[in-house]
Amino acid sequence: MTVHTALSRRSFIVGSAAAGGLSLGLRLPLTAEAAAAARQPEVNAWVVVKPDDTVVIRIARSEMGQGALTGLAQLVAEELQCDWSKVTTEYPTPGENLARDRVWGSFSTGGSRGIRESHDYVRKGGAAARQMLVAAAAEQWGVPAAECTAAKSVITHAASGRSTTYGRVAEAAARQPVPTDVPLRDPKDWTIAGQPLPRLDTADKLTGKQVYGTDLTMPGLLNAAIKACPVFGGRLASFDAAAVAKMPGVRKVVKVDDTAVAVVADTWWRAKTALDALPIVWDEGPNTDVSSASIADTLRKGFDADDAFVGTAAGDAKTALAAAGARIVTADYAYPYQNHATMEPMNATALFTPRRCEVWVPTQNGEASLAAAAEAAGLPIGRCEVHKIHLGGGFGRRGNFQDYVRQAVSIAKELPGTPVKLIWSREEDMLHGAYHPTTQCRMTGALDAQGNLTALHMRISGQSILAAVRPEGMQGGKDPVVFQGLNGGGAEGAFAYTVPDLLIDHAMRNPPVPPGFWRGVNLNQNTFYVESFMDELAHAAGQDPLAFRRKLMARHPRHLAVLEAVAERIGWQTKPPEGVHRGLAQIMGFGSYVAAAAEVSVTGGKLKIHRIVAATDAGHVVNPAQVERQVEGSFVYGLSAALHGECTVKGGRMEQENFDSYDVLRLAEMPAVETIIMPSGGFWGGVGEPTIAVAAPAVLNAVFAATGKRIRDLPLKNHKLA
Amino acid sequence: MARLTINAAVREVDADPDTPLLWVLREQVGLTGTKYGCGIAACGACTVHIDGVATRACALPISALGPEQAIVTIEGLSPDGSHPLQQAWLALDVPQCGYCQAGMLMAAASLLAQNPSPTDADIDAEITNICRCGTYNRVRAAIKQAAAGGAAQRG
Ligand code: FES
Ligand code: FES
């Protein structure tokens, strides 16, 4: 394998495009090669049909394990009515997208948006291509297009008994006018979309053939290992390059920005070995006193602070909770920092010359990578190109944050004409995360004499992701994403419970630890807080947790439907087996309604999760088999965080540097998961993230049922159950 | 120069003796199917077989190996992806991102070679590899499917 075969013609496009001096938003005449590729079999931007009827579907979003590649191809193929067995896929490059007026739309792959945000235009892409193919055949036959039908890549004119294939008319189809009226097929007539089809990208993942970013090679490639100041906000003071210059394979020691130093060598192992031997002096900066304890203290003070942003409110919760006679239940919760810990560490390969810069990178957002590359290269964006590679896990780490791209380009700039592959060690990955933010929450509820919840104040205190990474999304100082799952309405999570006096607010406290979008984002801790506390309230009221919730959910039938579904399947109304205890949780987020029920036992202080039932209403389902995998995977991610995961701060830096101290769920702990997919239609919800949020509260509510111990801060490993 | 027998071929490699086998495979022999995940034998992404036994290659210096030891990587598990485990993995569509899967397959192949009908407890004990995408239940099911189909005959 060399990069040229692995990465196709696209590697070369930027070289010629560079001369055009493209800048953002300008249309650039296609390069000769791109034009040739476009001319040959492209029907439109989404669909290429080759003479042998092979269909290439262009996928703008990234494949990181979640199955978007297959799902998006299904949506295009459904409208195209092509032969699924002849479908292959390719990524257009971010540079091509810019050169073609962003014909493929956004490349961003996060927030469980891959399908829910692009289903309309990708389906239209497939439908328009089908119309053009049919029109081309009809024109050749001299018959009205309306008399022709298309199925499985074959166009038929029944009246004259003629038929042809997509491959034969593809070239003529490309010359057809682009249709303006593009009706879409009704999801209930779907034959390719909506089906549990196997993934398109499995075979190479079983033989070692799949090329990840860390595997890239190309002629003359050098490898880089990097260390940035481990203390947040610190800088690189100095290093002694001479001390390692003569070590085997070492080519160069490079200062990277003001914060990091990299060793470039013939192999990565030699680069890392020399880096470990390199004397480095850090200027640790202003945060060396910051610790988990100091952060927790700051957050706790936010419970009583007046400077809170209101997320959702009804009535007057504060007055109601202060009123005499109300029975008050209150509890404080906390959620720690987490690292994404993708199995493939951060990496990027860059090739810089003074005229152009190319980057090969596993990225959740190719356009963000391109912007980062251009900025680091100091070149116009049109002289840069990014080649996307399948990701060895993303989970939010590889979208907004393009630190590794910037670093790779900075290093490559020191070695013009030489491709440099930067791979972070696991330690670097653990020390320089974009961490799941830390928050605390004080829940205060009032129960009336009948045990009804009449008032609720949910005070979140803690970190805002947007304030740190996307300040343009802030609304007058407020971070709306903090309230995921707690909103008055909307796709990002309507709060299920109708409480007469309700206040959900946020005291923003931002410690100097970089936060990021971590699979599930703020839905994770919000669901842990709300669903644990609902359980607490139910027990305080002496009511069954399902019945207690049900009374408050009448206005949210979809929320209730998934909750009822898991309760029924787990056998909520029947007695569990001896020693087994159950817990429930529900939430809405990322456009979908989800719920989970767990069965656990605790013996000698040891937790065993026997069984999980999970329900998802995502509106429409493009591939139920992949939804099942996302739901199962969500429990691995969610339970890793609930049981084991925690990044602690000491001396202004993370204490955990590898999987020995940052443990995650392994196979032996994995419960059986039964998935109920119950699409109610009429909307498009995401499935990669929401279920993560119900994993912890469902299990921990069951732990309470088993032990009487209420776990109010994660992870569980910090608590004794015996 | 070290002499190593990798996927039934003897290779001369020019590497410092303390270089872990993982990096020799990836960077000197060009077998990149074996993955780096942690470097401290904690995740299993780098699992290969040494004389049939699943071994984490990231923490094993090549100085500990001689040409008489048979090293098998994912590329050598079968010539064409036809090992019963690979077939079961394909039938159950196990991988998500796939990064951990070579290590999973190699760990599972070693388990089946030694224990043709593993129980759930055997699988729990032997398959300690990390998968962050969450393929564990399908890994378990695929191991059982391959075992039921007679993976053992292939050793
Ligand atoms: S890379 Fe060897 S066990 Fe993780
Ligand atoms: S399939 Fe992605 S880490 Fe296992």
TrEMBL record, chain A:
SMART domains: Ald_Xan_dh_C (SM01008). One of its GO terms (molecular function) is oxidoreductase activity. Residues 207-286 form the Aldehyde oxidase/xanthine dehydrogenase a/b hammerhead domain. Pfam families: MoCoBD_1, MoCoBD_2. It comes from the Bacteria. PROSITE patterns: TAT. InterPro entries: Ald_Oxase/Xan_DH_a/b (IPR000674), AldOxase/xan_DH_MoCoBD1 (IPR008274), AldOxase/xan_DH_MoCoBD2 (IPR046867), AldOxase/xan_DH_Mopterin-bd_sf (IPR037165), N-heterocyclic_Hydroxylase (IPR052516), OxRdtase_Mopterin-bd_su_IorB (IPR012368), TAT_signal (IPR006311). This is Aldehyde dehydrogenase. It comes from Chelatococcus reniformis. The lineage of its organism: Bacteria, Pseudomonadati, Pseudomonadota, Alphaproteobacteria, Hyphomicrobiales.
TrEMBL record, chain B:
SUPFAM superfamilies: 2Fe-2S ferredoxin-like (SSF54292), CO dehydrogenase ISP C-domain like (SSF47741). It comes from the Bacteria. InterPro entries: 2Fe-2S-bd, 2Fe-2S-bd_dom_sf, 2Fe-2S_ferredoxin-like_sf, 2Fe-2S_ferredoxin-type, 2Fe2S_fd_BS, Beta-grasp_dom_sf, Diverse_Oxidoreductases. This is (2Fe-2S)-binding protein. Residues 2-77 form the 2Fe-2S ferredoxin-type domain. Keywords: 2Fe-2S, Iron, Iron-sulfur, Metal-binding, Oxidoreductase. It comes from Chelatococcus reniformis. It holds the Pfam family Fer2. PROSITE patterns: 2FE2S_FER_1, 2FE2S_FER_2. The keyword Kinase does not apply. One of its GO terms (molecular function) is oxidoreductase activity. Gene3D superfamilies: 3.10.20.30, [2Fe-2S]-binding domain.
